[in-house]
């Protein structure tokens, strides 16, 4: 009877270790993901920002339609 109790406790300890590793791994991954997403290091944000600047310059009349179209194609 005592041997069975020790085996159960050992099995629970194993699952606790697996749970702890999964928890910290998930926490690390979530932190890395949010840091990458919200620090502005993604390429799409830079491209969208450049497109916004291009649109503003065209709206102010700094660029002709041909220049705007040419630059817009380069950004895509």
Low-confidence region ranges: none
Number of extended strands: 0
As a percent range, the share of helical residues equals over 70%
Strand-residue proportion: under 5%
**Which shape, going by the Cα principal axes?**
rod-shaped
Largest sheet: none
Distance from N terminus to C terminus (CA atoms, Å) equals: 71 Å
- What count of helical segments does DSSP give? 3
Q: For the residues shown, what is the average pLDDT?
A: 81
Taking all Cα atoms into account, the compactness measure Rg is 27 Å
Task: Give the SSE order as H and E letters.
Answer: HHH
SS content category: mainly alpha
Describe this structure as you would to a colleague.
With 76 residues, this protein is mostly helical. Helix content is 86%, strand content 0%. The protein contains three helices and no strands. It has helices at residues 2-38, 43-59, 65-75. The longest helix has 37 residues, at 2-38. The protein is rod-shaped. The termini are far apart. The model has no long low-confidence stretch (mean pLDDT 81).
């Amino acid at each position: 009877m005592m041997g069975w109790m020790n085996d159960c406790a050992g099995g629970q300890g194993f699952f606790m270790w697996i749970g702890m590793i999964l928890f910290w791994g998930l926490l690390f991954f979530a932190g890395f993901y949010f840091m990458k997403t919200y620090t502005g290091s993604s390429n799409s944000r830079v491209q969208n920002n450049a497109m916004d600047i291009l649109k503003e310059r065209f709206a102010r009349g700094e660029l002709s339609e041909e220049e705007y179209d040419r630059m817009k194609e380069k950004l895509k």
